[in-house]
Hints:
The complex is a heterodimer. Chain A is mainly β. Chain A contains no helices and eight strands. Chain A is 0% helix and 53% strand. The longest helix of chain B has 34 residues, at 5-38. Classes of the chains: A mainly beta, B alpha+beta. The interface between A and B is medium-sized, with 31 and 32 residues. Strand 5 of chain A pairs antiparallel with strand 6 (85-91) of chain B, so a sheet runs across the interface.
Amino acid sequence: MASGVKPRVKAPSSATAGEVVTIKTLISHKMESGQRKDSSGNVIPRSIINRFTCDYNGENVIDVKMEPAISTNPYFEFEAKIPETGEFKFTWYDDDGDVYEDSKAVTVG
Amino acid sequence: MEFTRRETLAMGAGAALLTVLPFRANAASVDELINEFTGGAAVADSGVDLIAPEIAENGNTVPIEVAAEGASAIMVLAAGNPTPPVATFNFGPRAGSHAASTRIRLAGTQDVIAVARLADGSYARTSKTVKVTIGGCGG
């Protein structure tokens, strides 16, 4: 697994029913593109996160297919509709088969 | 070694062709990628927004934002990158708006293209030229 991978998510902890909230996600990952060469001229093999998904109570909010052209420490900002109390589930899929997860609970008050 | 005028001209033409070819190859694959995404359907020129800086100082992190009213998917391509695909955003039933922003790598000054699959099944595209001061490929 790539070392030091840490997901960070910013989402509100409470919302009104039907509110559209902004979600910001950042995950630390070197996102090696497979284009760079090391000091002796060998190509550094590709190692990226190739997919990111966000679900709310099991229903999909966004599903992003990522390519090597996504920057180091992939950042995404998007909006989600909150119909009821529940939980966001964020999942990142690494090239090497690792899956990084994070979740955030939202209370509708 | 002596060169005749004819040989020199031929060599010049060959060299010019070699420098042009990689760009040609990329341009062709951009069209292929769009065709693959749309299934060969016609692509309209309006209906999708792409926000990108006019000048990006650092090609390693160029902030972009795509938005298309009611889109089910938006594909982003960088025509001048060694591998043109950047990302494909698929919006689910809980999406609050059909927009997303992220940061991308650009190898140099080039066009960034966004193609969206709209709610009625039609397709729209837009492109924006981004000037890159320092390329983001670690070349």
